[in-house]
Amino acid sequence: MNSIRIKAGRKTYELIRDGGFSLDRISTFFAPAAGPRWLVATGFDLTLLRTGLLGRKRPVHLIGSSSGAWRFAAWLQPEAEKSYQNLMDAYIRMSFRRGDSAQSVLKQLIEVVNAYIEDDALPFALASKQYRLAVVTSRARHLIASETLWIQSSGLAICFLLNALSRSRLNSFLDRVVFFSGPTRPRFCLHRPFRGSFVPLNEVNFKQAVLASGAVPLAVAGIRDIYGAPRGVYRDGGLLDYHQNHDYTGRDDEVTLFFHYQDRIIPGWFDKRLKYRKTPDDVLDHTLLVFPNEEFVRHLPLGKIPDREDFRTFIDEPLSRIRNWQETVKRSEPLGEQFLELVESGKLKEVVERL
Q1: How high is the pLDDT of residue 190?
Q2: pLDDT confidence of residue 297
Q3: pLDDT the model gives residue 72
Q4: pLDDT at position 254, please?
Q5: Which of 46, 95, 184, 285 could form a disulfide with 9 if both were Cys (CB 3.0 to 4.6 A apart)?
Q6: What is the pLDDT of residue 222?
Q7: Has residue 278 been placed in a domain?
Q8: How far apart are CA 97 and CA 110, in angstroms?
Q9: Half-sphere exposure at residue 94, Cβ-oriented, CA atoms within 13 angstroms
Q10: Which InterPro entries match (predicted)?
């Protein structure tokens, strides 16, 4: 029995139902800001990495913020599967103590990044012809740029209130900055709704951008003055682009693949508690959403997908958390194979639901 559900936006749904879908239609693979929830995507990612089925006819854009960007940075490495495994192992084995400062947490994250991205492999990663990476970050301004926790907290509280009125009001405190590999900027940066800057990735700023994209406010110190980018403090890309927030395709016959940990798509970090706030339907027209079903989640440790709260829950029992997360990774191994079987057998059009 399949452990995944699949939903599609209007145009992708029509493409699938008409029998016109193939993996070569996928022009973008998107990964959300998810914290430890990304661990449920590991089996899906590794299956696609091993088979090499994406980007066979044209480069596929790998677009992500926070842990999504961390996942995809491994895809560009010379030994991509090994790099991805190193990321999993180093991430799962992170351990924190009560009272850890944002700077000490950043130091641990630097160790994780160094564990799976080698400096001498960066030229290879940047030259990849199969994959194009886009790392989404948020450049903080005013109160949110401060590393003094009470000041930063005050800024975040103001942003929450402003965002409840309109997402556009966040522009007073946050600038979207997209770091990209490849010869040209990602197409979504040229679409009219896009607001922000775009900066080429290079050997100097690659790790800085990846770290910045996962610099969770309050918990992790920001990354200052990234090489080649506007000066300032850079934080988690999920602040502005928590889940899918743009149409990443360029043509009607293209598809954005999105493996998610749930079926709700939330535009930004500040929208999590705003049940009425969602990504517009037309933005998702070309999206193919894949996510674990409820039965699968019920059989995970503690009956849930890992999240950042696990660090607090098991702060005195890190080995228990590590075992739970390793078990989640193990149980997630078949999800990619299940997806490919649906595609290759033609059964995808029988199970796909409207998004």
Answers
A1: 81
A2: 98
A3: 98
A4: 96
A5: 285
A6: 97
A7: yes
A8: 17
A9: 25
A10: Acyl_Trfase/lysoPLipase
* Residues 162 and 170 sit within 8 Å (Cβ to Cβ): yes
pTM higher than 0.90: yes
Q: Check residue 148 and report its DSSP letter.
A: S
Q: Which residues of the chain have pLDDT under 50?
A: none
DSSP class of residue 176? Answer: E
Vertex 123: Cα angle to 224 and 29 (nearest 5): 75
- Closest Cα to residue 182, out of 209, 202, 208? 202
User: What six digits make up the tokens of 67?
Assistant: 């842990």
Q: ∠ CA 192-194-197 to the nearest 5 degrees?
A: 125
> Is 237 buried (19+), middle (13-18) or exposed (0-12) by CB count in 10 A?
buried
Whether residue 148 is contained in a domain is answered as: no
Could you read off the pLDDT of 308-329 as tens digits, one per residue? 999 999 999 999 999 999 999 9
5 bridge partner residues: 291
Domain count, the chain: 1
Which residue segment(s) compose the domain that 322 sits in? 4-139+171-354
Token pair of 107 as six digits: 């130091």
Find out whether 90 and 116 touch, Cβ atoms under 8 Å.
Answer: yes
Quote the pLDDT of residue 192.
75
In contact, 268 and 239? CB cutoff 8 Å: yes
Residue 257: what are its φ and ψ, rounded to 5°? -85, 135
Output the CA–CA distances (angstroms, integers) from residue 350 to 7, 21, 192, 262, 281, in the order listed.
Answer: 11, 13, 35, 21, 22
CATH number of 202's domain: 3.40.1090
